[in-house]
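Reviewer comment 2.1 asked that we show a complete input and output for one of the modelled complexes. We chose the S-adenosyl-L-homocysteine case, as it is the one discussed in the main text.
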Amino acid sequence: MSYEVGYRSRRVRERLIHRLKERGISNPQVLDAIREVPRHQFVDEAFAHRAYDDDVLPIGYEQTISQPYVVARMTEALLRQGLPQRVLEIGTGSGYQTAVLASIVQQVYTVERIGALIRRAQKRFSDLSILNVEMKLDDGYVGWEEKAPFDAIIVTAAPERVPTRLFNQLEMGGRMVVPVGPVRQEQQLLELIRTDEGFEQVDLGAVRFVPMRTGAC
Ligand code: SAH
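Response of the prediction step:
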C-alpha cells in the first residue's frame, strides 16, 4: 500500500479548499482549478511544505506568489458574467495564477517584466503540459496590443492608478480586475467593466500586492 504524505496529499489540498469555501469562494470552476493545480510546483522546494497554506510566499526577486484566497477571489470576479475565452494577465510571477486561469479559460496571455521569472514559469508550464499560455517579457503597462482585444484582464501587481492603455485593450463589456493604490500600502481591488460611456466599477475590498513597476529586465 502506498500513502501520499505531507504537502502532496489530497487531504492537505482539501483543507485549503475548505478554507476558501469558508471565506466565501463558491464558484465550482475556481475551486476545482485550485484543487487541481499543484501549487507546490510553483514555489521553491524549501517552501513546498507550506504551499497549501492560505499564505503569500516569496518567489525571489522581491516578488511573491499570491495568496490562494486572493487568486480565487480575482478569478471568481473575472468569471462573474460567464466564461471569458481570451484573458490577459499582467505579472506572471510564479505562473500560479496563470495556471489556474489556463485550467478554466481557452487562452491565457501573460506579461512579466522579470526575465528570470518568465523562464521559470515557462518550465513549470511545460512540465505540467499546460499548452494554452503565451508569455511575453515586457512592461505590462503597454499590455499586448497585437493580441487585443481581450475578454478579461487580470493585473497581479498594484499600479497607483487604473492603467488606461491596458484598459483600452478590453473588449466592450469585458472586465478588468486590478488592485489600485499607493506603493507599500493597502490597495483597493477593483473590478472594472468596459462600457460605451467608460467603465462601471465594483469595489472588491482591500488587498496588498507588490507594486506594478515600469520597464522590463
Ligand atoms: N500572479 C503572480 C503574482 C506575482 S507578484 C503569482 O501568483 O505568482 C507580481 C508580479 O508582477 C511580479 O512577478 C512582478 O515582477 C510583476 N510585475 C510588476 N510590475 C510589472 C509590470 N509593469 N509588467 C509586468 N509585470 C510586472
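The first helix runs from residue 10 to 22. We note this here for comparison with the apo prediction described in Section 3.2.
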